[in-house]
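Task 17 of the worksheet. Students: predict the tertiary structure of the chain below and write it out as structure tokens. Keep your answer in the requested format; marks are given for formatting as well as content.
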Amino acid sequence: MEAKIVRAMLKNFRMSPRKVREVADIIRGKSAGDAKNILEFTPRKSALAMKKLLDSAIANAENNFNMDPDTLYIKTILVDDGQTMKRFVPRAQGRAARILKRSSHITIELAQNK
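Model answer:
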């Protein structure tokens, strides 16, 4: 029997992927309970969004697949580039400089320990 994988996604989170990956690297491969605890006390804006996403993935596993939340671990966590908004800021002598407002797509996959 193949192990079930539960997925939850957050799209267009308004933070650059580089900043989000710092938090994602901390919880990669950890059990779901440990990851929740780590995210609770990580002082980053992206940690709150990731905690909500992890809660959503755990709820998906519990309600849709009847999995035990105590046996879940983070199999995969991906942070990809999302939509980039281009803005301009005025500079000297009539010029303009480009500002890139980046966003991220975060994907968490949970699996069960054997």
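Marker's comment: Strands lie at 6-13, 72-81, 85-90, 96-101, 104-112. The radius of gyration is 17 Å.
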